[in-house]
Amino acid sequence: KYSGISRDEILAKRREYLSPSIYHFYKNPLQVVEGKIQYLYDEKGRRYLDAFGGIATVCCGHCHPEVVAAIVEQTKRLQHSTVLYLNPAIAEFAQALASTLPANLKVAFFTNSGTEANELALLIAKLYTGNQDIISLRNSYHGNAGGTMGTTAQSIWKFNVVQSGVHHAVNPDPYRGLFGSDGEKYVRDVEEIINFGTSGNVAAFISESIQGIGGIVELAPGYLSAAYSIVRKAGGLCIADEIQAGVARTGSHFWGFEAHGVVPDIVTIAKGIGNGIPLGAVVTTPEIARALTRRNYFNTFAGNPVCTAAGLAVLRVIEKEKLQENAFVVGSYLKERLSALKDKYELVGDVRGRGMMLGVELVTDRQLKTPAKDETLHVMDRMRELGVLIGKGGYYGNVFRITPPLCFTKEDADFLVDAMDYTFSRM
Ligand code: PMP
């Protein structure tokens, strides 16, 4: 039984005491007071199937008992800063994390968020290469601090920060992009940026493996490996932002970049790796990591015992419960069923993504690809009434983002698609 303050009181307090820039989903905002694996509960005890929580926090499911136990046990024993004394949690987690990554990607710097991880990755790349220019993709999201807001390339997520030295390459978006699915053509833009927009040398190229906030945009085939080789010729490092696509989410692979056949120089990780606990990481090679030994580098909470104990528990649960395989099997099934809606409703312009990172783009005109923004909001609202929570994204706000906990079942997938189908049928 929920005994907290009422919805209206929370709203009033938010209006008075919280940042005016925070926003909430739904016209009539939802209060969630409890979570259990793939379900969330509101203050009245109503249950919702959570098909979006995977992105923000949960890959093992809300309040997964093993992850909770690891956090509680470590909290009771010790919670402290990481840096000054030895503690087993951080060392064990660093080793376990390295074992999931290919090649010599084995040295971790921990952070408290994705933004911090990308900021640090950009700094390391600049220090290591001695270069300053950064290339990121249009439509990307990499964070909201000084450097990362510059690399983020969607005006809706940017303030007028100084972003000198950052170049935004044409997005290899197979659905809306200038060159369709022709990865090679998009890569020429990276070449032109280097040749005509820089000294010929760059510090880094940073990209998500599947763009998340940008609306679950997969990169055109062949793009990433060709872009990596051009950037490396210009002396730059390749950074894979795995903050959304990593940690088994894409199903076919543990890391999103693996599906592109590339090995990055730096990988950034956050969100799902902590299953709700603030935990991020930059993982790179021992050689590149040495760049950060030139000065003191200190981060009070990064990699603290409680957060790294959570991270280790997350990796164990993913393995034990075969969550990557589940993301592949159930994710493929879910995508198939969502794709069938495209044949049924003109409104569905595109269905895309991998594993449990799926997008459904709504358009009012398939030829013109006119974003169906109002319809997207309407369907989200209606699905919430039917007990299913999904997210949205994309520059035009017309893409459903379906990113459930990795333990989502086939029955959950059916319930979600049936609710969406029913909603479309009544419009
Ligand atoms: N990179 C990507 C791909 C993200 O989606 C996000 C967050 N949405 C970030 C970086 C920033 O992470 P955080 O919000 O933890 O700072």
Q: In which range does the helix fraction lie?
A: 25-40%
Shape: globular
Radius of gyration: 21 Å
Number of strands: 18
CATH fold label of the largest domain:
Aspartate Aminotransferase, domain 2
Structural class: alpha/beta
Tally of domains: 2
Overall mean pLDDT stands at 96
What gap, in angstroms, lies between the N and C termini? 36 Å
Strand content: 15-25%
Bound molecules: 4'-deoxy-4'-aminopyridoxal-5'-phosphate
* CATH-defined architecture of the largest domain: 3-Layer(aba) Sandwich
Oligomer: single chain
CATH homologous superfamily (4th level) name of the largest domain: Type I PLP-dependent aspartate aminotransferase-like (Major domain)
**Quick one: biggest sheet?**
7 strands, mixed
- Report the top-level CATH class of the largest domain: Alpha Beta
The stretches of 5 or more residues where confidence is low (pLDDT under 50) are none
Reading side by side through the largest sheet, how are the strands ordered?
A: 4-12-11-10-7-5-6
Helix count equals: 13
Organism: Flemingia macrophylla
Cofactor: pyridoxal 5'-phosphate
Catalytic activity: glyoxylate + L-alanine = glycine + pyruvate
Keywords: Photorespiration, Pyridoxal phosphate
In terms of topology, how is this protein built?
Blueprint: H1 7-17, E1 34-36, E2 39-41, E3 47-50, H2 53-56, H3 65-77, H4 88-98, E4 107-111, H5 114-129, E5 134-137, H6 146-151, E6 166-169, H7 183-197, E7 204-208, E8 210-211, E9 217-218, H8 223-233, E10 237-241, E11 266-269, E12 280-284, H9 286-289, H10 305-320, H11 323-344, E13 348-354, E14 357-365, E15 370-371, H12 373-385, E16 388-389, E17 391-393, E18 399-402, H13 410-425
Parallel strand pairs: 3-16, 5-6, 5-7, 7-10, 10-11
Antiparallel strand pairs: 1-2, 2-3, 4-12, 8-9, 11-12, 13-14, 14-15, 14-18, 17-18
Helix pairs in contact: 3-10, 4-10, 7-8, 11-13
The structure holds 4'-deoxy-4'-aminopyridoxal-5'-phosphate (PMP).
Residues 113-115, 118, 141-143, 208, 212-213, 241, 243-244, 270 line the site of 4'-deoxy-4'-aminopyridoxal-5'-phosphate (PMP).
